[in-house]
UniProtKB/TrEMBL annotation:
Domain (Septin-type G): residue spans on this chain: 48-287
Matches recorded under InterPro entries: G_SEPTIN_dom, P-loop_NTPase, Septin
Signal peptide start-end: none
Transcription as UniProt keyword: no
UniProt KW keywords: GTP-binding, Nucleotide-binding
Protein name: Septin-10
Family: Belongs to the TRAFAC class TrmE-Era-EngA-EngB-Septin-like GTPase superfamily. Septin GTPase family.
Domain of life: Eukaryota
Native source species: Galeopterus variegatus
Region (Disordered): 1-20
Gene transcribed to yield this protein: LOC103610035
Amino acid sequence: MAMKTACMSSQASDDEQRKRENIRSLTMSGHVGFESLPDQLVNRSIQQGFFFNILCVGETGIGKSTLIDTLFNTNFQDHESSHFYPHVRLKAQTYELQESNVRLKLTVVSTVGFGDQINKEESYQPIVDYIDAQFEAYLQEELKIKRSLFNYHDSRIHVNIIPVIAKADAISKTELQKFKIKLMSELVSNGIQIYQFPTDDDTIAKINAAMNGHLPFAVVGSMDEVKVGNKMVKARQYPWGVVQVENENHCDFVKLREMLICTNMEDLREQTHTRHYELYRRCKLEEMGFTDMGPESKPL
Ligand code: GDP
């Protein structure tokens, strides 16, 4: 019922817009072929490949590299980092991955030295600076007269805030529920806006709405394979039993992977461009003295 109302109201607003723009809706008397436009779009995008950039923030040793390896089922061979860095810095590495005929240029940016200093007040600053520096680089390319955004290595961070509890196998079931509630309420009380899986597309609205209610995801990472029944599965083996990474009764790893990679990767990429970068660009251009108003405050 709710869906029907939403569809009807969007139809009504389409009609209104057409009326405003003086566009007439006509019925064609035969096939001409522009229905293949979406296929053309898909083919071109596949040829170009996709950029996807993840920033993974967390203490040294919390399980960041293991989680990224497990998410992409790839051994990225990241080196173990020490706990003795005086400052937080960011380390970016780009990899080319291919699944079927889709090429993905994946950049993983991880924090180094996060949480290792006694005074952690400034730990967030290099992270914010890094995000802004990528926006700035894109803006500078965009502002060039001869710009080449077509083959530009887009390094803007796509993965907005998705809270994750790492090493979820180290916490009991009841403690985990309490911890999840505490974490979410701390995020809210500190005014931190996390990424909400979008619910405006009917095909994924239901699953995304359910997943929003599961945040933060409690995950376990491991590239080790353990025999369970007659199958080899990714797991962590303990003297008392086996924690299976992809078993939804054991942890939320599958939920995170589905949401991040299968369902919302394009939304993350799009929101980075249309929301976050747009805001950065607007503020920067206004700072530089540009305006959309002409003389006598008339829009240009
Ligand atoms: P990073 O410094 O945050 O990149 O952490 P690593 O991925 O290098 O992991 C540090 C240690 O934690 C390694 O010994 C991992 O095997 C272990 N580890 C990683 N993920 C998990 C997990 O989900 N559960 C447990 N118990 N240990 C983990």
